[in-house]
Amino acid sequence: MHGVGFFNRTAFYIGTLLISLFCLIYELIRGHIGKTRYRIFLIGLVSLIAAALCRMVEVYFAGTSFRTPASRLLFSGAVFLFYIIHNFLGMLTFFYALFATQNFRRVPYSALYAALGPFAVSELVLLTNPVTGFAYRIEEGGRFIRNWGVFLTYSCGILYVTMAMFLFLRKWSGLTRRKKVILIYALTIPLICILIQAFYPQIRLELMGEAIAFIGVMLAVEYDEDLADTSTGLANRDSFIRDVTGLFGQNRPFGIICVRAVNLETTCRIAHIAPDEVAEDAANYLKQLHPGYLLYHIRQDSFVLLMLRKTDEYKLNILLQVQKHFGNGFVYEGKMLPVRSLILTAEYPGKLDGIESVLIMCEGNLMLKARTGGFVTEKELDRIFDRASIDKAIHMGIKEHKFLVRYQPVFTPDGEVAGAAEALIRHADPDFQDFLPEDIVRMSEYNGTIMGLGDYVLNEVCAFLESGVPAQCGILKISVNLSAIQCISPDFVRRVEEIVGAYPHVHPSMICFEIAEADSVHDFRLLSSVTDELRSKGYTFTMESYGSGYSNMYSVFMMNFETVKMDRSLLWEAEKSEAGRTLLENSIKMIHEMKRLVTITGIENEAQWKLAGDLAADNLQGFYFSKPLTGEQLSEMYAM
Q1: Which of 146, 354, 488, 615 has a 20 to 30 Å separation from 327 between CA atoms?
Q2: How far apart (Å, rounded) are the C-alpha atoms in residues 256 and 258?
Q3: Residue 75 is inside which H or E element, if any?
């Protein structure tokens, strides 16, 4: 058969060939052939191309009326290869869906072997057909007779495509409405075409239907431009989360190397360079070190290298190369930019226990001490995870009312209650109860929840004062810890008045605000104006943790505090050495000369109690006298 007649009879096969070649070339240009699913997709395209070519050879030699033995042999060979290859496509579709939806490792091996059963049986029938004739036979004159084996292959194709559709629509975390519509359309077409082919063999649509299915799968699964970072060509954050979540779901070991440029945007602004251009240079370097399909640009300043089935030697070599290239900054056009780049690494199983821990490491708040850059140590990484736990606990504690307020009484040097107590915040979750109040305050300042946390504590204190329990215990004033950041917020005074005003029996004189880290605020004039306004309404103020390295005598003088609390470290140093005693003694003397009261904290034994009394402190506080108590425990203690 020649010319127009041949092209008319092979039009569907030529269309299949062109569509498959287009998809194959597109995938090869994208260069994502490292992942198993990409390999399977490419094998499927090559198989479809081979099947279309076999059909075209079959049509060509069928038109020769088998004038020569060679033409009959080529015809028979084309038919045989077509069925072998075509039968392979159904099973390949199912396994592609298993890997694309990241369910391959979740399926037991017994189930996988069972799934291979229909393919194995049908393929055996086809392979033995030249001898058995179970699938088909070719009579004299080229007449093609189908047998039950061919219908078995059709049944297998329908079975595997249906199972693939089920995996995509029910077991794929990456499914969106758009992808769902495309996949339903794309996978329904080959099912219809296979059924038509089974009952109407003269209408040969199945290959074209399968080619359309490949386009649909490419658009819905392979065409992941929404998962790509346009500036670097690497996979983006969504792709990273999807892939890592899948690895956790499969319980598959992996490692992560993360390069984070802490001050990239600032450096680029100073140097008048676009951050995307610097990121592109960094991405090009990383592509030389590690397969591109395992590289991610999850945000402007963070790159991630995903390690799968890599030896320790390989990982160490990559780490050293990354450290050498990024340890002192980012290279751009051959010049080193002073970017503070940090390199973090962790593994699963190990420090990584879920996608949350991965994201904390790769894009969470580092809060590490300023340094030039380089490896983040294991201890520093633990600290990052701990701080993230505090961050989460604060958000959930405020939202779900899981914070508890405890009260630690203040005593006179004689060991009698001084008529005051300090409100201390604790978390109801046992996992977070070991975190100190100052840790919670510092983190809440960093994550922006300090105002909500402050309102929460003040409400609890006012409710406790309103109950009358503190007055029954001889406690007429309760101290509430404040961050200086709270004080300088524009509506702080209004918020305090609204909260306290909601409790009729609570007078401002019953509340003392303790301010820590006053020197972290440079505008003392603003802070002083806020405290003076509240002081005029009856509130009092205490400087907390004097001598801790944050507070200083200038703050005491500028802020006009009524009371100064000595940091516990001063007492402990005074107990150890004469120099420490002299420092604490002179500090107390100076504060007294400024007409302020002094409270010594951290008293844990009788010797410290005696030492504090000898130094003429006005009030004392510590576990020796009382640990922080609930309102009920406080009442019981003073009722004895």
Answers
A1: 354
A2: 6
A3: helix 69-100
212 within 8 A of 189, measured Cβ to Cβ: yes
Distance between CA atoms of 182 and 276, rounded to whole angstroms?
33
Q: For the chain, give the number of residues.
A: 640
Taking the C-alpha atoms of residue 336 and residue 329, their distance in angstroms, rounded to an integer, is 6
Give the closest residue to 609 by CA, choosing from 593, 629, 631, 624.
624
Answer yes or no: are the C-beta atoms of 8 and 204 closer than 8 Å: no
Strand 511-516 with 477-483, pairing: parallel
Cα(306)–Cα(244) distance, integer angstroms: 9
Q: Is the peptide bond before 349 cis (omega within 30 degrees of 0)?
A: yes
How far apart CA 91 and CA 74 sit, in angstroms, is 27
pTM score, whole prediction:
0.59
pLDDT digits (tens, 9 = 90+) for 202-216: 888 888 888 888 888
- Listed residue (229, 224, 338) closest to 279, CA to CA: 229
Residue 434 has pLDDT above 70, yes or no: no
Exposed (0-12), middle (13-18) or buried (19+): which is 119, by Cβ within 10 Å? buried
Closest CA to 80 of 21, 153, 2, 14: 153
Residue-wise pLDDT tens digits, 122-168: 999 999 998 998 988 887 766 778 889 889 999 998 999 999 999 88
Q: Has residue 519 got a pLDDT over 50?
A: no
Q: Which two tokens stand for residue 150?
A: 């061919």
Contact 236, 243 (CB under 8 A): no
Residue 594 structure tokens: 């400024």
CA distance linking residue 188 with residue 169, whole number of Å: 13
Q: How many CA atoms lie less than 13 Å away from 60 in the CB half-sphere?
A: 17
